[in-house]
Design goal:
By secondary structure, this protein is mainly alpha-helical. The protein has 2 domains: about 100 residues, no CATH class; about 230 residues, no CATH class. The chain is about 65% helix and about 5% strand. It is built from 11 helices and 5 strands. The strands form 2 sheets. A 3-stranded antiparallel β-sheet has the order 3-4-5. A two-stranded antiparallel sheet has the order 1-2. Helix 3 runs antiparallel to helix 4 and helix 7 runs antiparallel to helix 10. The longest helix is centred in the first third of the chain and has 70 residues.
Length: about 425
């Protein structure tokens, strides 16, 4: 008996509800009904992928406008920095005018500056005081009071910040390119789906050979994951950078410690001893250097210093503007990538069907249908129906339909097709 049942199943004949064998023609009807549902879902998914493409095209246009604004801001910033460097050079050539009075103050300023800086470092940093102390002493010995007088660390900070901005911009651009390529890849793969139900799609003559970043070889593209870590890292950097040097000595005992700020200060002192010049206000003799007036000896020097300060302020303003633009761009990419992820989870599965030819019987094939063993706890209840189907090119899948829905009820194949498609989506989006 078991052998006979297997033989019937292999021929595609089915028993349902104890009502005899189902001929192949009725299996074909079920397949057609299920395929009609799948066709609708495929078309909806293709339209969803088109939404992704439209969103990405719009984002790309806005990106081009952002690039133009960034380029203009960068140009103005670089011009201001260049002017400040020229004025600093001219001032340096004239520094001997007031050198005598400055040098005596500088000799008293240096030990105080070193002591103050090392006191801050020892208080908030865990290690490296000896090395940092030697580096700072060497720096101060080869420096001049001119560094204090013209706020020389501001130029160093601008140049250093410019390098960080460039790295951040390049990172954002690379991630944007990956997101753009990923959406284009999904779109192109979706348009390779063709068959009788989708005559408006044709296989492109040159498709499917684009090299993609390994990130996009996974089922879930995870566009949001491109930008979330970068956003968090930048936020920590900006939170730590603002005000890190404003009150280096005050508030440690009475206010909560900001460990992000502490790390920023420690790293800055280790990396660049010039950062300690920011603490000049803590030392009386250093403040006196700032107050030295050379205009009576050389009026041109006073004018040069004013021009230098103006150029510095302008460069700093454009530097902040550039940072703000990068942050706005990054936030926009974070939001866009989140929306693209939502659309991809909902519709991206259709891109897995690239180069799949739809057969004459449709995408969904019903191979077996039979009633399961009745529920012993409630023998009067109709037995559930087990249906074996094959969707697209996947492996055969066994599904269950409640026994109160007969196979000739339109809801029967809707349930089967919906279950089969959900299973396919889960398998191809995890």
């Amino acid at each position: 008996m078991a052998l006979l049942l297997l033989a019937l199943l292999s021929l595609g004949l089915v028993c349902q509800g104890g009502q005899g064998l189902m001929p192949p023609s009725e299996l074909k009807q079920l397949s057609a009904a299920g395929s009609k549902y799948i066709d609708t879902e495929v078309e909806n998914a293709i339209n969803g992928v088109k939404q992704m493409k439209t969103l990405m095209d719009k984002t790309s246009k806005e990106h081009q406008a952002m690039l133009h604004t960034l380029e203009e801001t960068k140009r103005k910033k670089e011009e201001a920095v260049k002017l400040a460097l020229e004025k600093e050079k001219q001032l340096a050539e004239k520094q001997d005018v007031c050198n005598e009075s400055m040098l005596s103050l500088w000799e008293e300023c240096k030990p105080c500056l070193k002591h103050t800086c090392m006191r801050v470092y020892s208080k908030i940093c865990h290690s490296g005081s000896g090395l940092v102390g030697r580096q700072l002493e060497e720096f101060l010995n080869r420096s001049s009071p001119f560094s204090i007088w013209v706020n020389g660390e501001r130029i160093d900070e601008l140049l250093d910040r410019e390098q960080r901005q460039e790295r951040r911009f390049e990172d954002l651009e690379e991630r944007f390119g990956l997101m753009e390529d990923g959406v284009e890849d999904i779109f192109q793969d979706s348009t390779q789906l063709y068959g009788p139900a989708f005559p408006f799609f044709r296989t492109p003559p040159f498709g499917g050979f684009r090299e993609l970043h390994p990130f996009f070889q996974h089922p879930v593209h995870g566009f949001h994951r491109l930008f979330q870590p970068l956003f968090e890292m930048t936020q920590r950097m900006l939170d730590g950078g603002h005000g890190a040097w404003e009150h280096p000595l005050g508030g440690f005992a009475s206010e909560p410690r900001n460990f992000s700020t502490d790390r920023m200060v420690c790293r800055e002192i280790r990396r660049n001893s010039a950062g300690c010049l920011r603490m000049r206000d803590e030392c009386e003799k250093c403040r006196e250097i700032l107050a030295v007036d050379c205009s009576q000896t050389d009026p041109v020097q006073s004018q040069l210093r004013e021009q230098f300060e103006d150029a510095l302020r302008l460069a700093e303003r454009f530097t902040r503007r550039y940072d703000d633009l990068l942050s706005a761009f990054q936030a926009e990419m974070l939001n866009t990538s989140s929306l693209l992820d939502q659309l991809n989870r909902q519709f991206g599965w259709v891109s897995r069907l690239k180069n799949l030819t739809q057969g004459t019987d449709g995408f969904l094939q019903v191979t077996t249908v039979f009633s399961k063993t009745p529920n012993l706890e409630d023998p009067s209840a109709p037995a559930d129906t087990q249906v074996t189907v094959q969707l697209f090119d996947s492996e055969p899948l066994s599904l269950t339909v409640p026994g109160d829905i007969s196979w000739d009820d339109p809801r029967f194949m809707e349930i089967v097709a919906e279950q089969a498609l959900q299973h396919y989506k889960q398998k191809n989006t995890m």
